[in-house]
Amino acid sequence: MVKIPTVTLNNGVQMPMEGFGVYQINDLEECKRAVKEALATGYRLIDTAQGYQNESAVGDAIQESPVDRKDVFLTTKIWPTNYGYEETKAAVEESLKRLKTDYIDLVLLHVPFGNYYAAYHALEDLYQEGKLRAIGVSNFYPDRYIDLIHFSKVVPAVNQIENHVFSQRKVDRKYLKKYGTQVEAWSPFAEGRYNLFTNETLVNIGKKYQKTAAQVALRFLVQNGIVVIPKSTHKERIEENLDIWDFNLSDDDLAQIEALDLKKNMLDHEDPKTVEWFMKKTMPLDNK
Questions:
Q1: Which residues constitute the domain of residue 124?
Q2: How do residues 232-285 score in pLDDT, each as one tens digit?
Q3: Class of residue 34 by CB neighbours under 10 A (exposed 0-12, middle 13-18, buried 19+)
Q4: Which end of the chain is more exposed for a tag (fewer CB within 10 A), N or C?
């Protein structure tokens, strides 16, 4: 079984460099099966969110898996319509119930919209109480990230952002490194856009190592110190995505891949339409 390296977060907690994401696995039985398959394959980081509406399936999978709960790094995210000091505290309690656990390894604020200051202060207090091993944010661009940390007691341990070979986020990474926050990449395959899986550069580099374009794309991120959370519901892909720890990209490989950067995100969190969508999509505390 593959042993996944870990990174030390700014509070000393160890986080696996690769995990399993469950975004858009809407069928709860399929989600539970995929998470159990991932755990059996060797993944030890599972990433979900209130907005994915599959926390209960993730909780069932971890509970039914022979892998000890203490060996699983579990992440969830608070939906913006659950922001607010008391609201966020209540939302975390509901997530704990759905995930069938008495602590969560990492809780993130999903987006920087709404009353996220009060929400983050609630996470700080829950962290101090020991219910959360680490706290952080997601989709916070450098301006809002820097603003938040200057009015908070706890520097976010993680910022989960869109990050892939076509959106390398070098400015974001510069400021996150400056203040000691770990970068975690959602959608490391760019949702298959820009023909990532058949990209000539990635395919040709992969041939040197008997790896696929997808594996090269993941390896590029982790070699840059970025945590990745690829998603798949297919057993062979779940296994393939984990098979990236037995090779190293050369400096020339890295330079070729850096040249693929389009410096453009698939989802622009500064676009008013994006903000409207997030704020209109209410996520009740009793979502299943």
A1: 6-193+224-233
A2: 999 999 999 999 999 999 999 999 999 999 999 999 999 999 988 888 887 766
A3: buried
A4: N
In a domain, 206, yes or no: no
Does the annotation list 110 as a binding residue? yes
Reported as a single tens digit per residue, the pLDDT across 125-143 is 999 999 999 999 999 999 9
> Residue 66 sits in a domain of what CATH number?
3.20.20.100
Interstrand relation of 106-109 and 73-78 (parallel, antiparallel or unpaired): parallel
- The first and second tokens of residue 68, run together, are 């000890």
Annotated catalytic residue 52: yes
CA dihedral over 138, 144, 149, 153, signed as positive or negative: negative
Tell me which of 43, 52, 116, 127 is the catalytic residue.
Answer: 52
Structural domain includes residue 1: no
Exposure of 53 in the CB half-sphere (CA atoms within 13 A) = 10
